[in-house]
Amino acid sequence: MVTYNGAPSAAPLLDLRGISRRFGALRVVDELSLRVAGGEALGVIGPNGAGKTTLMNLIAGDIGVNSGQVVFDGHDVTQLPPQERCRAGIARTYQVPHPFVGLTVFENVLVGAVFSSNLSEKAARPRVREVLQMTGLLSRADRLAGALPLLDRKRLELARALAARPRLLLLDEIAGGLTDEEVRTLIETIRSIRASGVTIIWIEHIVHALMAVVDRLVALDFGRMVTEGAPKTVMQDPAVREIYMGIDAVEEIVP
């Protein structure tokens, strides 16, 4: 049984069953098993090279597993390509935003809405406006994406993922490069997305941002799970402290 906020549920939304990925002789994800309940916000931490982004790629289908299964909503999606996983309800952001710089903000999100759901442009437009409102971009809808500052590019990356109406949203270091104030703004946006019912898996080096949002933390190192549990408990784990070279991230929690 999977529990979320103390309430049991019969099956997880995402169930990773012993997944592994090798690049040559290097095993980047090593027989990792992980369950994520519907409505949960899960944070993933670990040093560079721990396998975090590879894990996201395996869930989204950007690369395939060498062994194990990816089960989403009770269905084995291990062999599905990324576009089919997106239509099934898995969407993601990338560390470095890559918008269509010659299109407007509205057009960028419209492309995501149309191609992720097979909607017509006319049918997708209300969803685009809804997503732009949620991510704080509605007032910038007519601006060219190439003219946006970094925070708004990050918001646009979020908006394009949300246009697909995901049930599971994968966030890959979306707070990287932002100022403290911009991180606080982004936290509020992610909280509102989570409150709308979207399940979130968030990789982030800015640990205090994770601590402000997630219910549970997973620590990875060399492609294996070091520990998982309540965020404060994980950050106080001796093995996690060793990985982070004694950095006490808990002191930086955003209220």
Radius of gyration: 18 Å
Q: Which strand-content bin applies to the residues? A: 25-35%
Strand order of the largest sheet: 8-9-10-5-11-12
Helix content: 25-40%
Descriptive terms for the model:
255 residues, alpha/beta, four-stranded antiparallel beta sheet, 9 helices, globular, disordered N terminus, disordered C terminus
Give an overview in words.
- This protein has helices at 52-60, 82-88, 105-117, 121-134, 150-162, 180-195, 207-211, 231-235, 238-243; strands at 2-4, 7-9, 14-23, 26-36, 41-45, 67-72, 75-76, 90-92, 168-172, 199-203, 216-221, 224-229.
- By secondary structure, it is α/β, with parallel strands linked by helices.
- The chain has a domain at 96-165.
- A hairpin with a 2-residue loop joins strand 3 (14-23) and strand 4 (26-36).
- The longest helix has 16 residues, at 180-195.
- The radius of gyration is 18 Å and the shape is globular.
- Residues 1-9 and 247-255 have low confidence and may be disordered.
Mind sketching the topology for me?
Blueprint: E1 2-4, E2 7-9, E3 14-23, E4 26-36, E5 41-45, H1 52-60, E6 67-72, E7 75-76, H2 82-88, E8 90-92, H3 105-117, H4 121-134, H5 150-162, E9 168-172, H6 180-195, E10 199-203, H7 207-211, E11 216-221, E12 224-229, H8 231-235, H9 238-243
In short:
By secondary structure, this protein is of the alpha/beta class.
